[in-house]
Fold this sequence. Notes:
The chain is of the alpha/beta class. The protein has helices at about 70-85, 95-105, 125-135, 145-155, 165-175, 190-200, 210-215, 235-240, 265-275; strands at about 5, 10-15, 20-25, 45-50, 90-95, 110-120, 175-180, 185, 220-225, 245-250. The strands form two sheets. An eight-stranded mixed sheet has the order 1-2-4-3-5-6-9-10, with helices on both faces.
Amino acid sequence: xxxxxxxxxxxxxxRDAGTGPAVLCLAGLTRNSLDFEFLTPHLPxxxxxxxxxxxxxxxDHDPDxxxxxxxREGRDALELLDHLGLPAATxxxxxxxxxxxxxxxxxxxxxxxxxxxxxxxxxxNPAGLERIMDYVGREPDFPDLDAAAEALxxxxxxxxxxxxxxxxxxxxxxxxxEKPGGGLGLRYDVNLRKALVGQAGAGEGPDLWTLFDHLxxxxxxxxRGANSDILLPExxxxxxxxxxxxxxxxxxxxxxxxxLDEAVSLEVIHALLxxxx
Length: 277
């Protein structure tokens, strides 16, 4: 299985498949490389590189949970590109991954050929953030993956109308694992919650609009789920005003976040990849 060692000694897992232009796929806050399973079949002519961040998926947990931040995670992404001998890549960033992409545009703009921001922007709606904090770091109270899928279907049905139970069953397996003794575990370090609380309390973090502005001159695409509680329409309007050349689309019948295999999502992704070459 492919791993690389970071500059501070952690073993991080990644998936690397396909040939063609490199696309670095950066997942959401609590997600991992499996988050792009629905997209992968639609990009057969691309080399898709999908890392598990530190503390997520099959990667090592960090003994210092405060290293779960977008600057360190961005550095890990660059070290992965170095490990693979890749000078640059187009980034598809879902939620947290989009914030990392914006940070990279400030610190290492030459390594970024283009960016797709999947349902994320410089302003994060507090109501959506509160919803996320309600579950981050809390062990799931489900007996098995089938029960978790039913719960996801019920919880997200209003924001994702028409999405079948089978899709939520696959999503549940990406997010949780079945423990040998019964019940489910999280596919990430529960200390991620402590990192978020600690960083918020310390007022840590760069100004996201400054990071976003450094995407100027790069091919950029912005996707928003029509029912998203994280990326609001007025934020997208501000983003378009500051980056007039950006490709923008709203994905119908999706909340936070689109799966990226929707027709609207794929049209925008392919258009961005053409611009990024």
